[in-house]
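Tokens in:
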């Protein structure tokens, strides 16, 4: 997955609209389905937890299905890209300890993975205005740059291959 420049204002606007639509759909759908089920099968005890839960579950499945179908729509371009980038960075984070060990042992592929992780994290944190840990990221990137220079490695996010994570 290549890192691309994302228009922050468009991303935030579209993400907020998607979130609001999902929340509205969840409220209306869950309550509507639960009320329909309660009307069809009322409980003499007055507890309708299982119908309410069923309404929530069915509505979540419907929302997920709709999101899956519209993910390729132009409106969803930035939202889908950031979602996939977060998934990719999560996969790297799960193997981060082994990747760092390999990178400090001189593994070129591990260095490229770390470089991609740092660049992707920087992109996400800037989009989400999460600048609190940016200094820590800068320190990690500097350490990686020094390590790459010691091993004569040119770091490039374009060289990252998701399948390379399987080695770690």
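Residues out:
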């Amino acid at each position: 997955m290549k890192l691309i420049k994302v228009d922050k204002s468009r991303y935030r606007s579209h993400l907020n609209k998607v979130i609001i639509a999902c929340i509205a759909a969840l409220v209306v759908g869950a309550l509507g389905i639960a009320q329909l089920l309660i009307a069809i099968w009322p409980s003499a005890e007055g507890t309708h937890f299982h119908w309410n839960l069923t309404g929530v579950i069915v509505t979540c499945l419907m929302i997920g299905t709709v999101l899956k179908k519209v993910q390729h729509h132009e409106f969803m371009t930035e939202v889908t890209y950031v979602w996939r980038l977060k998934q990719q960075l999560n996969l790297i984070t799960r193997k981060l300890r082994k990747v760092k060990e390999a990178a400090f042992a001189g593994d070129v592929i591990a260095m490229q993975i770390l470089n991609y992780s740092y660049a992707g994290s920087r992109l996400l944190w800037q989009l989400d205005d999460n600048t609190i840990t940016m200094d820590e990221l800068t320190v990690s990137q500097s350490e990686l740059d020094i390590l790459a220079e010691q091993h004569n490695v040119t770091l490039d996010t374009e060289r990252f291959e998701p399948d390379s994570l399987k080695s770690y």
